[in-house]
Design brief:
With 237 residues, this protein is mainly β. The chain is 0% helix and 29% strand. Strand 22 (172-177) and strand 23 form a beta hairpin. It binds zinc ion (ZN).
Length: 237
Amino acid sequence: MPAPRRVPTSVEPPAPRIHPTAIIEQDVHLGAGCAIWDNVHVRRGTTLGAECIVGEKTHISYDVRIGNRVKINAFVYICTGVTIEDGVMVCAGCVFTNDRTPRATSSDLSHLRTSEPDEHTTLTTVREGATLGARSVIGSDLTIGRFAMIGMGSVVTKSVPDFHLALGNPARIAGCVCRCGKILFRLGHERSIGPSVQRCTACGLQYRMARGVLSEMPQHGEDADDGVGSPSGHAAK
Ligand SMILES: [Zn+2]
């Protein structure tokens, strides 16, 4: 007797979960599986991809673009002009900015300046996989690179390259980090450049440093079925 045939079923993607105290304005798109916690406010025109988590009392302003599986902790402020790519971690209390010379009013103090984007509004992009530490402040007109890591309490005033660690106020490059988050090596007064090839002691991924740029190296056997712990899932795109 033949085995019963499996009937394919269509699975609806999970609807976003929104706490009743959250304010989600018009024209906001929340991807499947998003979780929006209490007292979050998402302003009009903003898009979040699938499976994002937005922690309590976070504010996301107009027309912000947020990718898939972005984790945003509590008490975060994200302003207009910010783009956050897939897989970014935004830790608690992180604040974005979008104006290098903000003023409340016109020069003669006679009227309020607009809260809408204007010629003073500058853009910030956080590339995929990056981490912004707790209570960090992210300046505008800059890019945080892929898998970069910003230390807690840092004030970022310049772009940070891919896989680089930036710390302090103003934030300075302090080393390089793996996709997994482990520090590959530190850059300091005694060591202005790391060895040319670096291997992560935690996950085995390898990187090449050349002229200050850290890039991923092809992983050996990345096509082999070598089971748990394989770096194959981390192959460079
Ligand atoms: Zn690693």
